[in-house]
Every structure is written in structure tokens, then in C-alpha cells.
Amino acid sequence: MSKHYQKLIKPLVGQFLGWADDRTPHRYLNIATVRGEERVKVAKSLRPQIQDWQPGIWLTLMSQEQICKQTGKRKLKVKQLLTPNQSGIAPSSPQESSLVATESATPTKIQVCQGSSCRRRGSGQICQAMQAYIEAYDLTDRVEIQSVKCLHQCKAAPQAIVTSPASEVLPGKTHYRQIQPDRVAAILAKHFPIKLSSAQAIVTAL
After folding, report:
1. CB of 91 closer than 8 Å to CB of 13
2. Cα–Cα separations (whole angstroms), residue 157 to 101, 119, 120
3. How far apart are CA 174 and CA 33, in angstroms?
4. Which residues contact 157 (CB under 8 A, 6 or more apart)?
5. What angle is formed at CA 72 by the lines to CA 21 and CA 44, rounded to 5 degrees?
6. 3-state SS, one letter per residue, for 95-135
7. Where are the domains of the chain?
8. Beta carbons of 78 and 61 less than 8 angstroms apart
9. What's the rounded Cα separation, in Å, for the pair 54 and 17?
10. What is the DSSP letter of 90?
11. pLDDT tens by residue, 28-86
12. Total Cβ atoms within 10 A of residue 47
């Protein structure tokens, strides 16, 4: 292990989302945790035991977390299988229940770029459309809109990043580029499903 990396062994609790794309089957899995969607490498010796897993089951895994001290980048690897829950029901032990409760209370954060390129291309109107959607569908307790200075991808302006907890329909981080105001309702409907025809009416009225 390089001196630039810190290695931790810790339990990982979350819901199995499916297998990540890779040339080697069952090498990486995607799991929704309190931190969002995580990509986890599976030890070769464990792959035969988990190849029949179906999305939706809840897992408790013993994982090795490798953190780069310089960049903070994390890598996860499954070292031991503890409690796959085939029922698809969230864990009920005190420790696991507290994790699930924490993720449910965490709001979705939408970071809308307010750099000069994004402002020129309508980021202000996009914020208005998002706020209208959130208020119309009573999502104020579940969504927080944040204006950020610059996301450093000016060619993709206007843009926004949606970060949702594991309890939402699309957990983890999603980056949207070249957003048009009339597409805001369709974007948010992916995260908070409603009838698109109704959502589009909100944007049209702005």
C-alpha cells in the first residue's frame, strides 16, 4: 500500500442496484448507501456466491475502503458478505435502521451553475422553473436548490448537478448539461415522478 493511501476496513450497508458495466461479469456492483450510489469491487473469491443476486435486496458487507490522501478519491472492495436480505426490506437492526433514517431525512440537492456562461444562457430562468416545480408538487422538504459560482464546464452551459440520497428514485449524483427551461420539468420528473403533461404546464406558465 502506497504511503499516499489510507486503508480502512468497515461495514457497508445499502441496497443492491445492479451490476456495473465491466468486461468481467460480477466484478463491480452498484449499491445505494447513505452517501449515494457507490461502485464496489467484489473480491474474485466471492463472485460465485453473489452472481444470482437481484436488484432491490439489502446488503451488509465488510468492505475495504482505500482513500487517496492527496485527492480524497475513494475505492471500495467487498472483503466479506455478512447479511444479504433477499426480501428487499431495509435492515432492521438499530445500527442499520439509523442509517436508513438518516438517508431518508437527507434532501436532494440541486446545484445550479451561476457562472457567466450559464447566466448568459438562462440559468436564472432554470432556477425559477425548478422552484416552481418544487412548490407546485410540495417537494420543499425533499429538495434544496443551491446556486454555485462555476462548475467549470462552460461549453456545457447551462448546467446543474442533482445529488439525491439512496431513498429517492435516482440516488447518487447526476450531471445535466445544456439545460433548456422547457426541459426542467422532464428532468425533475425523473427524480420525483409525476405526469409530465402537468409538469410541463408549470414551465409554460413562467
Report:
1. yes
2. 36, 8, 9
3. 16
4. 113, 115, 117, 118, 120, 121, 123, 178
5. 40
6. HHHHHHHHHHHCCEEEEEECCHHHHHCCHHHHHHHHHHHHH
7. 5-104, 106-204
8. yes
9. 8
10. P
11. 988 887 677 888 898 888 888 888 888 888 777 777 778 777 777 778 888 777 655 44
12. 15
Two domains, one topology: 5-104 and 106-204: no
Instruction: For the chain, give the number of residues.
Output: 206
Q: Distance between CA 91 and CA 83 in Å, rounded?
A: 9
The fold of the 106-204 domain, in CATH, is Glutaredoxin (3.40.30)
Q: Pick left, alpha or beta for residue 178 (phi over 0 → left; psi -120 to 50 → alpha; otherwise beta).
A: left
pTM of the model: 0.46
- What is the per-residue pLDDT across 7-18, written as a single tens digit (0 to 9) for each? 766 667 778 888
The C-alpha cell at 66 is 482505500
Helix (H) or strand (E) run with residue 38 in it? strand 36-42
Partners of 175 in beta bridges: 161
CATH code matching the domain that covers 5-104, chosen among 2.40.50.140, 2.40.10.120, 3.40.605.10, 3.40.630.30: 2.40.50.140
Phi (first) and psi of residue 44, to 5 degrees? -55, -40
Neighbours of 186 (CB within 10 A): 13
| Strand residues in 43-89 grouped as ranges (E) | 58-68, 74-81
